[in-house]
Amino acid sequence: MAVCLLLAPTLALAQPISPEVRISTYGSDNYENVQSEPSVAAIGSHLLAGWQNDLAVGGGIGWGFSLDGGLSWTDGHELPSTWGTGFAAAQPTVCADLAGNFYFAALAGDGEGFIVSFWRGYFQGTGFAWQFGGVVLPSIFNVGDPPYDRPWLSCDPERGYLYLTYTRVERVETGNSYYPHHMTIYFKRSLDHGATWSAPVALSGAACNGSQPAVGPDGELYVVWEDLGAQQVLGRKSIDFGVNFGPAFTVAPILDNLSTPPSGWRAPWFRFNPVYPPLDRKAGPDFPAIAVDRSSGPRRGTIYAAWADYAGGTVGPATGTVADPEPNDYFGIAAPFTLGQDLQGFARSADFGGPDCDDYTFEATAGTTIWISGEVLSAVPGNLDGSPVVMYYSLYCASDLTQAVGTAPFLPGWAGTLPPLIYTLPSSGRYYIALTCPGYSSYSYRLKTRMLNVSPGQVARDARDIVLVSSSDGGATWSAKRRVNDDQPQFDNALPSLAVDGLGQLHVAWYDRRDDTACGEYVKTYWTESLDGGVTFLPARRLSAQAGSWQFHGSGATTNIGDHLGLTASGAHSYVVWTDARGMPGDLADIYGVSIETDIPTAVAISGFRAAEEGAEISLKWWVGDPSGLSGFRLYRSSGGEGYDPLDPALVPVHGIGEYREGDATATPGQRYRYRLEVVAVEGTSRWLGPIEAQRSLSIDRLAWEDARPNPFSNSIQFTLAIPRSGEGTVRVYDLLGHEVATLERGPLNPGRQRLTWDGRDRAGHRAPPGVYLLRAEQGREARVRRIIRIQ
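RE: above sequence
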């Protein structure tokens, strides 16, 4: 149970505290440069960001750091490499732990194949020092595409554990040139800050991608991903730091607009779709983002997941057929039709009197959602290896005929099963459909054009809206979908990222096209927050000052914009970094960022008051968001009736913003207690939180370790051992080779809960070296072992 006390008139509101800051600057004077797919991590005011460099010459991973909470940045150029220079790299992710370590992982090429690389570093004075780089996943050579996709690194900030999820891509030979792929989510972990890594463990089936891990407040680990076959967002949970995972659970069904990526978005050249091979690199991005509330607020432990859905509805009726007239091979003489009609024709290849290009045109109003599906009826002579003839059609907006706003394939045998092109028209006026000109195969075709009638009450209302779900029970059940963006239902919203700040407030950032009412080509970055656990959201705020186009006009750039932007939180601050494709001279796209700060003086002053059994005591915790005007705190307990007695007459002193904890070690097992918290102001007045209830367990039926704090530890660690009966016993510490390091108890063990401490010294009184140790308790035939870690 958690309660909060409002000492100010409003909840905590976050505001951008500076204009956008350009983060990446390296290379812009010499190259047409595209820097994209950013990630960011923070410890207090120290920030590290990483991004993909896609220079006209070379490539690699760019990075930068900030010492002042993102108000200014230093571009660190490219990450150092131990496996060669000028390596190609992509898909970086960054995380940090509370010991001051920053970690970095990315997909990279090593000259022989593809690896997943790793770096560790720390802030040193006014600069940043890299400690080492290594390889997490070994080099594997795949013909034409990397064996890994979407590596994502996450940190357990208290323990320093590292978790990496990724997609293993395996090509399946089918007897022709049209290869499907198996794509499986895998997991690895490191308990020694990246020096060594566990063997990979498969988490999913063979039609999955887009995984992302996140750590809960008590070290629980969640991983979510998209199952393209099941059309669901799935997840798994580990409560033992990644040693074992529970069964997969369903987060929500996903309405993935596969055939219609956001305007100008370019997929990675190696990304395939395991369910719809014809889509290959045309499939749009829709991977889920995840965040867990690690604060001491009332929603501590809540999990959030977000992605982009299209609106469900019914496909409008067919209204007739338009036969392919000739000529109609360019926009000026495109054949007119109305939505609802089928377009049917024959296109000749170059060696049969062509090439014959077919264009069509229609008019419609803004906000209309269209649905287009197509099939190749016949192809002459067809592909020599027997693979299907794949043709494409593109949708163009009349005010910009240089760039397609949507592209989708069609081919024989896939009619009705290949995902349709679904697009909501951003403006009223004329649009065009252009079929690709046939090469060595003439073909007959049919395109079905329809309107998608959005059903009432849909969460998503057009081609792509940001939706969010949450779970307050560890992923067992999930809320209904809620829409995050607040624009009109005609603009594309894509690629959300999530973070929860130290006050328990949820932040969401995404790319948004509401400011381009022409063709919806130009994009800006938007952000919002929720003060009630994702039930409602404040009005969205635009972060980017100028709009940019992902089309990169005339550049010849082959990069993609990535499948995420960067968002993180530290305390009352959050930070958004994004790819800004405004096309300034000499730089086609750069990384920009904004720092956001919660207005602490108007925040919830005291929140998250809760009680729970921890080891041999009742642990009482609360969160202080604004300590100004406070003198201290006093805890009271009642075991029945109306009377409350202080646990300690002395005040618990105020030590600033953050979590406060006191323990009630005198609570009798089996007795239920009520607790109240007195908040004493400087002028002597008091306010109260509670009551809340808690109870210590009555019976102990087996020998067990109940807690170990802190773990990892530096100087000393405390344990609680539950002892079911009297009897001789021992408590010893061993190293991983089985050598006894220290003896903590030897002799009679009495029933109950016994508190023990190890000061980190061996039998000779010397400090034991940092590493992993085993704490072993024995009594009679029972033995219990707990793993503990000593750090420097």
